Amino acid sequence: SQQGEEDPQALSIQEGENATMNCSYKTSINNLQWYRQNSGRGLVHLILIRSNEREKHSGRLRVTLDTSKKSSSLLITASRAADTASYFCATENTGNQFYFGTGTSLTVIP
Amino acid sequence: DVKVTQSSRYLVKRTGEKVFLECVQDMDHENMFWYRQDPGLGLRLIYFSYDVKMKEKGDIPEGYSVSREKKERFSLILESASTNQTSMYLCASRVHSGGRAEAFFGQGTRLTVV
After folding, report:
1. What is the mean pLDDT of residues B93-97?
2. What angle do CA A20, A26, A30 make, to 5 degrees?
3. Given CB atoms, is B32 within the 8 Å cutoff of chain A?
4. What is the percentage of chain A residues whose pLDDT exceeds 90?
């Protein structure tokens, strides 16, 4: 399987705190992306980082990528109750296939 | 806005039935994907199509087949449904290459096989 893994599986924090989730993958990649899924719905794209980039920001999101360790992290700063969702990393390999991780379930307590 | 539409939100089928899950996208995307999502297992790739009539197996193709006769439509077929195929099925599409490689998802089909 080329599926990645995320850590932790579940995370519960207070509103205003930062949330960090990690992703590990197995193959060489073109890029890595993070997606969000609200309960029972489809996934929505958050941010993309290319294999030659090390860090990227978008609003309250910060993504890092370490290709030597085959890992990435997503930081959500100043979390809000509306950030409660599941978060998935996805890797695009050189064959243009898209593999997702197992996901992190984030709960932000108001 | 890109729209990816799956034909049903909820589906109940009997064991042994042939099941068709349909996915249509309206943005002329080359790539289309079928995933199944199960608790604790994340999204697992079943099949991938990079163009019309082209398909590649993902991690878990057993028990499934696909059809891509037109660019906008990608169908997932369960030849003989079994209870272990009860799951949430998600379809996605995206452009083949270039700077914008994000995937757009349908709302999902929750299939129950009884």
Report:
1. 79
2. 85
3. no
4. 73
Would the pLDDT of A80 be above 80?
yes
CA B30 – CA B40 distance, rounded (Å): 30
- Could you give phi then psi for residue B15, rounded to 5 degrees? -55, 135
pLDDT at A41: 83
In this complex, do A9 and B43 lie within 8 Å of one another by their Cβ atoms? no
What DSSP state is assigned to residue A33? E
Angle at A24 between CA A23 and CA A25, to 5 degrees: 125
Is cis: bond before A8, omega within 30 of 0? yes
Nearest beta carbon to residue B108 from set A41, A98, A100: A41
**pLDDT reported for residue B76:** 98
Contact of A5 with A102, CB cutoff 8 Å: yes
